[in-house]
Inverse folding.
């Protein structure tokens, strides 16, 4: 029932409906169809769809495409995309850029980013203490 209503909204061009349908399909294990709806919603400007599309692509191993979508979503104000972009950059060894994105995400209201920044500061203090001792 819910899927039918979401499908009607998505088919009518409602970007939020497209995103919600994609999310429902992803949770049901239909990643290919979910990706299709995320792409349509992303093309319509839905930042949440861009973020989730980036997650699907990263899980598939396509980090370059994930980064493109997360940067687009971040430009649209998605704190979740900023947070994910920070992790991607950290994995690449670019800690300064990772921290920069986490700071932006924290400013945008991400509690996850605030937590990650707190851990980062604690790690720094620990390394500084090791050097002193």
């Amino acid at each position: 029932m819910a899927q039918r209503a979401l499908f009607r909204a998505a088919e009518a061009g409602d970007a939020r409906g497209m995103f919600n349908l994609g999310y429902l399909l992803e949770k049901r294990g239909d990643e290919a169809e979910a990706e299709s709806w995320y792409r349509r919603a992303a093309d319509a400007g839905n930042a949440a769809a861009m973020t989730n599309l980036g997650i699907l692509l990263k899980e598939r191993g396509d980090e370059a495409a994930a980064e493109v979508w997360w940067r687009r979503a971040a430009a649209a104000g998605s704190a979740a995309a900023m947070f994910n972009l920070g992790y991607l950059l950290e994995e690449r060894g670019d800690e300064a850029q990772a921290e920069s994105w986490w700071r932006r995400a924290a400013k945008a209201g991400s509690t996850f980013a605030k937590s990650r920044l707190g851990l980062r500061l604690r790690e720094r203090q620990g390394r500084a203490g090791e050097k002193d001792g």
